Amino acid sequence: MEEEDVVIVGAGIAGLATAVALKRLGVRALVLEKAEGLRTTGSALGLSPNAWFALDALGVAHKLVTAYAPCRKGLVTDIQTGAIQEVSHAKFDTGGHALRVLHRKALLEALAEELPIDTIRFSSKLKSVGNQAQEGSSCAVIHMDDGASIKAKALIGCDGLHSVVAQWLGLRPPVNSGRWAVRGLAVFPEGHGMNLEFRQFVTAGKRAAFVPLNDKELYWFLGCNFSFKGEDIAHDPELLKREVTDNFAKEFPQLYLTVVQHSDLSTITWTRLMFRLPWDIIFGNLSNGNVTVAGDAMHPMTPDMGQGGCSALEDAVVLGRHIGDSIIRNARLVAGDQMAGALKRYAEERRWRAAGLITGSYLSGWFQQEGSGWLKKFLRDVVFYRLLYSVIFGARRFDCGKLPCVPSNNPELENNQSKID
User: Fold this and answer.
1) What region, left, alpha or beta, does residue 244 occupy, with left being phi > 0 and alpha being psi -120 to 50 degrees?
2) I want to staple 192 with a disulfide (CB 3.0 to 4.6 A). Which of 148, 188, 223, 266 is the partner?
3) pLDDT, tens digit, 9 for 90 and up, residues 92-119
4) 409 Cβ partners below 8 Å, 6+ apart?
5) Which fold is adopted by the domain 177-274?
6) Cα–Cα–Cα angle for 4, 7, 8, rounded to 5 degrees
7) 6-19 tens-digit pLDDT
8) Which part of the chain has CATH 3.30.9.30?
């Protein structure tokens, strides 16, 4: 049976960021990814100040921040009345960091470049998880679909929405929000000529937006309450694009339709919006012994605050901090109760933060998208945008902290670091 110090399941944002955090501590992690390569599905994502704080801690921010300009203003158009509200993103700038929208692929590649070439093992599908006593302590046992087994001092499940590791911990499955979303990347080879503003359009049961990534590409999305029956076309990007322009967004401004019509078909995706109930996070088992979860495996949420990837980066730094503190106390990476304690402290620190982000994201979508009566408009335009917006989105200022400085003068960590380098 193969033995590893730390095994991470999933090479998404959470998995790669966690592996980078551990590398900074001198700990080598093995990342198991079921796909044949990096999962670049999802054309773009917004990274708020909290994500940039985490990327600073991981030593990766400098590779991305200069390539994407900050987005400091948004315009929200009410389709039914034509009224336009301006929403400031600049008010959430903090510590020199601002909201930036970037290619998801660029983030994954920036993280992967920090890791030794043999860190990620592709085409490796997890089958089940277990525990095993070993020399007076316990270790995690990972059983793979191909029959292989791996023992590890720690197992971190970053395996997404339908996480096998989360199921093993006893977390209940995510629930359907009652909404779905189509996303894509529009390309204008000659330039789109638009300002770097987040343009949003809202009406009863629908919310759409686009935002430039650079002078030639714009990220767009459309979210609707769940009335979409044509799941067969969900896998056909050309039909999806046509369904958006000819049906779901037909009453939206021509500017938005033009953006969608310029989509790179390979970037168009359709998905149900799922989330984990916040009380399942508050009261559920986020760790058990030397097993825990991070990213969507812990806290899947709707995208209404743009915090899915941001919070995954936070997870990586906080988890690295607690493992690093354990290494400092014990002068080495220790399994058993010491590792279990580090993972438990990580889970407790993340529990309320994750539950709050899930709640804020869901409420943000509910206020902006549900209903069409005067009361709903009042709640959206006055209560949400003028009163609650700053409170809910203020969570994007969060600084998750730094990684500890782990002494490199012990043989175990020096050996690990030589393997990493």
Assistant:
1) alpha
2) 188
3) 888 889 999 999 999 999 999 999 999 9
4) none
5) D-Amino Acid Oxidase; Chain A, domain 2 (3.30.9)
6) 160
7) 999 999 999 999 99
8) 177-274
